[in-house]
Specification:
The complex is a heterodimer.
Chain A: E1 10-12, E2 19-21, H1 22-28, H2 46-66, E3 70-74, E4 77-81, H3 83-92, H4 96-125, H5 132-146, H6 150-162, E5 169-173, H7 176-193, H8 197-207
Antiparallel strand pairs in A: 1-2, 3-4, 3-5
Chain B: H1 26-45, E1 46-54, E2 66-69, E3 72-82, E4 89-96, E5 108-112, E6 115-117, E7 120-122, H2 126-129, E8 132-136, E9 146-148, E10 162-169, E11 180-183, E12 186-196, E13 203-210, E14 222-225, E15 230-234, E16 237-241, H3 245-250, E17 253-256, E18 271-276, H4 279-283, E19 291-297, E20 309-312, E21 315-323, E22 326-328, E23 333-342, H5 357-366, E24 370-375, E25 383-388, H6 414-430, H7 433-501, H8 506-534, H9 538-541
Parallel strand pairs in B: 1-9, 2-8, 10-18, 11-17, 14-18, 20-25
Antiparallel strand pairs in B: 1-4, 2-3, 3-4, 5-8, 6-7, 10-13, 11-12, 12-13, 14-17, 15-16, 19-23, 20-21, 21-23, 22-23, 24-25
Classes of the chains: A mainly alpha, B alpha+beta.
């Protein structure tokens, strides 16, 4: 196992990736001498922040899925749809590709993110040595796909803005929309708060 | 807490262990509070689940069909299933918590679909939005969870101000639940129910008059069936009566008070009234006292029907109730019992008042009252019964099985029945046809004379015409040459005129030159005014170009 920057007594700037000797950090006021960004050996309080955000997102995940996402008024008939009822509607009406996209983007991915983050947090806390490279890849994937869940919110906002035909057809956002947006945003923050280097730190514990 | 703090080599790093947990934990706490509030609200808002039984679930969908009161959603159908014996549909619905007070034992629920009936179109909105279940809160106090849904919208919901009345009738006609009730051709209510009476062979109609019109129903108010046309063929000719075009199709009831000054008091809830078959019948005075009498006729009663008038000296005192045919097996003979109803109150009694109306008829029978068939309508051959004191009849012997007292009858001579026709025939017979014929002959002869005289007149007219012709011949000969010269003279004058005023004549070219000069002058003036308009100062200072 190659030594980490931390073991070498170096801290990397999060922004410009300049390596700074830890001994010099106190002198520069924990700032990068090149770009002035705040420098830490590891993201501060990473696990606690990540846990808090994951927990909050998990709590909001329930109202986001149980409350109606849209109120669709069509010729005087108002219908309230949750995310799942929308998926079932598209599936029942034969448009299963759309149903699949909605399901993956709006139900599966947020849930997966929460589970992945929770797993990563637990594995780091338990000083797991199991497949650190795969876990790091999992983390990167989580960070990358996280933003795509926002598609659902965008679709709703666009529909609400477009379909304003008065009594003929009308779409309004339901109470689930803000909770769903919160779930997506909170999981994105949680993923940002997590420091993947912690995965490798544990490997170092074993190595030394 | 952070794991990054225990680093063996990074001794230079200042490690601060916070005693309080990170502020980031506020986020999940807030989330938990919001979620808890949502959960509590959801549980609180969940009202009771009710079940409604319908005959069929047409248009009802679980999870979609709403329950509405005054078009406000107060519940949602959660499940639609068949009951155990497969005869009905059970609909369970989750109600709003605020709807709980409405769910009492007499609350009415029905499915609102598009309904098109004569005179009424409702629920058109449901064509697009699908059916919904409407609710009409009851006035009861007992909360209930099971309801029997109505198949048709109730004609009356509990919360409408107004008053119910009961009408009794023998025939329903085209009346139905929802049929309108009119007062002075304005709809003020409707029929809400009808059923056969338990006690009599009549139909009891329940009607509802909306407030404030319910106060127009007085104890003396008459109701009548206003369905269709009311044809009446009587001595005044043909009369057609109808309440409105709508009632012709779908039936209706109208009411009015025959005499507004004697309308009586405001009728109370569930007051009973008689529904008269038509307006005319309803406006007739109602006589409480009706006495039935039996009349036996041995002759043909063709044209005598129930309802035919019973008259005394031409004034109606009652009507025929029934006409039947009876065969007496002992005597082997037919007779026709006719039951009549006499209303003695139609006769005004004067005198010292010792005789009450109910005693009048028996007294008259004692005095020799007889009944006789009488032609009532020559055209239709309808018969009436005429009572009289003049013709003496034998005192009737009361039969053993007579249900009513008898009035003796006297046979109507055939001549009297057919008398009118006979009289007409006789009159035709009596016409002096031969005298008319001879008169016509005389007239023809005088006409002949007249014609001959006319021929003479025509001849003299002919000679006058030939004289006239001669006169015109003379005129032609003497006047024509003179006229010709006059015309030639005129032609010459015109030619000279043309030479003077022709296009190339001197006069005309002079005039044209003058006109051209004039137009030039006009142009000069226009230039001047234009210039002045642009340079008004030139009036004072002169033209700019020439100014020094």
């Amino acid at each position: 196992m190659s030594p980490t920057a931390k073991e070498a007594g170096l801290a990397a700037c999060h922004v410009c990736n300049r390596l700074i000797p830890v001994s010099e950090l106190a002198a520069t006021g924990h700032r990068c001498p090149r770009c002035g960004a705040s420098v830490h050996l590891r993201k501060s309080d990473s696990l606690a922040r990540c846990w808090a955000l994951v927990l909050a997102a998990t709590i909001f995940y329930f109202p986001a899925n149980l409350l109606p996402m849209t109120h669709t008024g069509f010729l005087g008939k108002v219908q309230s749809d949750t995310i799942m009822s929308g998926v079932l509607y598209f599936f029942a009406s034969g448009s299963w590709p759309i149903a699949l996209v909605i399901f993956i983007a709006s139900v599966f991915v947020p849930l997966l993110k929460l589970l992945v983050l929770a797993y990563l947090l637990i594995s780091v806390q338990r000083r797991s040595h199991w497949r650190p490279a795969e876990r790091t890849r999992l983390y990167r994937m989580t960070e990358i796909i996280g933003r795509w869940s926002m598609v659902d919110i965008y679709v709703v906002t666009i529909l609400v803005a477009l379909v304003k035909l008065g009594a003929l057809a009308n779409i309004e956002a339901g109470p689930a929309a803000p909770y769903f947006a919160l779930v997506v945003v909170l999981t994105m923050f949680a993923a940002m708060a997590f420091d993947p280097r912690l995965i490798w730190d544990r490997m170092g514990d074993e190595g030394n | 807490m952070s794991e990054t703090t225990e680093q063996p080599q990074a001794t230079e790093v200042v490690v601060r262990r916070r005693r309080l947990p990170s502020l980031i934990w506020i986020i999940p706490i807030v989330a938990a509070v919001i979620a808890a509030w949502l959960a509590v609200k959801a549980v609180n808002d969940r009202g009771p689940v009710i079940t409604i039984r319908f005959d069929s679930a047409t248009g009802l969908e679980a999870g979609k069909t709403k329950i509405r009161y005054r078009d406000v959603d107060i519940g949602l159908v959660e499940a639609v299933r068949l009951d155990e014996d497969l005869t009905h549909v059970l609909v369970s619905a989750r109600m709003d918590r605020r709807a709980a007070p409405f769910l009492v034992d007499d609350t009415q629920l029905w499915v609102v679909r598009a309904r098109v009936a004569a005179g009424e179109v409702s629920g058109l909105g449901t064509l697009f939005s699908g059916a919904y279940i409407a609710l009409a809160p009851g006035r009861g106090k007992t909360p209930a969870g099971h309801f029997i849904g109505l198949e048709t919208p109730p004609a009356l919901t509990g919360d409408q101000p107004g008053r119910k009345f009961i009408l009794k009738t023998k025939r329903l006609g085209s009346l139905d639940v929802g049929s309108p009730v009119y007062h002075r051709q304005i709809q003020v209510g409707r029929v809400i129910s009808y059923h056969l009476s338990d006690t009599s062979e009549e139909i009891e109609l329940g009607i509802f008059i909306e407030a404030p019109h319910h106060e127009r129903v007085r104890t003396g108010t008459r109701f009548w069936n206003a369905d269709g046309f009311d044809f009446a063929l009587d001595a005044n000719g043909l009369r057609v009566d109808s309440e409105s075009l709508l009632t012709i199709v779908s039936g209706g009831i109208a009411f009015a008070s025959p005499d507004p000054t004697k309308a009586g008091e405001i009728a109370g809830e569930n007051s009973q009234f008689i529904l008269h078959p038509n307006r005319r019948a309803s406006m007739e005075p109602v006589h409480q006292l009706k006495q039935r009498y039996l009349l036996y006729f041995n002759e043909s009663v063709r044209g005598l029907a129930p309802g035919a008038p019973v008259e005394f000296r031409g004034i109606r005192v009652g009507q025929v109730v029934s006409v039947e045919l009876e065969f007496d097996t002992d005597k082997m003979e037919f007779r026709i019992p006719v039951v009549v109803e006499i209303e003695p109150e139609r006769i005004r009694l004067t005198g010292d008042g010792k005789l009450y109306p109910e005693d009048l008829a028996p007294k008259l029978i004692e005095k020799g009252l007889t009944a006789q068939l009488k032609q009532a309508n020559l055209l239709t051959g309808q018969l009436a019964i005429a009572l009289s004191l003049e013709a003496k009849g034998s005192r009737p012997t009361p039969g053993k099985n007579d249900p009513y007292p008898r009035i003796p009858t006297i046979p109507t001579p055939f001549e009297e029945l057919a008398g009118t026709v006979t009289r007409i025939l006789k009159k035709i017979d009596d016409l002096p046809l031969d005298r008319i014929a001879s008169g016509v002959e005389r007239d023809l002869a005088s006409l002949d004379h007249t014609l001959k005289a006319a021929t003479g007149t025509l001849e003299s007219f002919d000679s006058t015409l030939s004289g006239l012709k001669e006169l015109t011949g003379n005129l032609d000969r003497e006047l024509a040459p003179a006229a010709k010269t006059a015309i030639e003279e005129m032609q010459r004058t015109l030619k000279e005129l043309r030479a003077n005023f022709g296009s190339d004549s001197p006069l005309s070219s002079d005039a044209r030159q003058a006109l051209e000069e004039f137009s030039k002058a006009a142009r000069g003036i226009r230039d001047l005014t234009d210039y002045l308009e642009r340079h008004p100062e030139s009036l004072l200072r002169g033209k700019k170009g020439t100014a020094p």
